[in-house]
Amino acid sequence: MRLFRRGVIPLTDSVPPPSEREVLRAVGIPHHEQIVQVGEAGVREAIALAMRRSADMASFFAVFRTAKVVRALPDELVIADAPLGMLRSSAFVRRFAEAREVAIIAVTLGQTWDDTLDELAKRGEAAEAWFLDALGNRLVDKASRRVEERVSQDMARAGLTRIGRYRPGYGDLPMKLQALFCDFVDAARIGVQVNEAMSLWPRKSVTTVVGFRAAEDDADIVNADQTS
Description:
Structural class: alpha+beta
CATH topology: NADH Oxidase
Order of helices and strands: EHHEEHEHHEHEEEH
Distance between the termini: 33 Å
Largest sheet: 6 strands, antiparallel
Radius of gyration: 20 Å
Strand content: 15-25%
Mean pLDDT: 90
Number of strands: 8
Number of helices: 7
Number of domains: 1
Shape: elongated
Low-confidence stretches: 219-228
């Protein structure tokens, strides 16, 4: 069965507004359910302002590209049309040893977030800037997972199921791979660039690799458990 077309696929969408509980978890106050429960009035106001501002900037831009797994080496997963070394990581190979396809994803909330955070800092609104920064981290992660779900739905139609995700900087997957990921998906078309430190710009941007294996592999595991 044919998957969606090969090559880089752009996507523009938005993240659903987070609940107050999600906001509080994002800013490091997990023991409250509502902002009104926060004791200090100034902190409550800064969180509420950051929440409202983030809702106005919840759109995101993404590009993704899928590729067949060609072979698994001891320290590298080789995929079609990608340069050698792009998925070089022994831990990654162990986790995705059964993968038949991978998807490389780049997502950004855009330059508006950087501009807004810089302006808040310039005005001395340090608390709101801090809370908004934390919310941005949560939202860009949710955006990446939203794109991952879109890819997973297409993969499911081809009989493939998701294994999991990995990002540069996790385990032994080095940050320098961000540059290869961005080149592979042409992240520049959504304004994402890699600086000398291998961090992404705009700041609220992430890259992710997701592995997919044959769905019947899961069925085999279940059947083996039932008969053991």
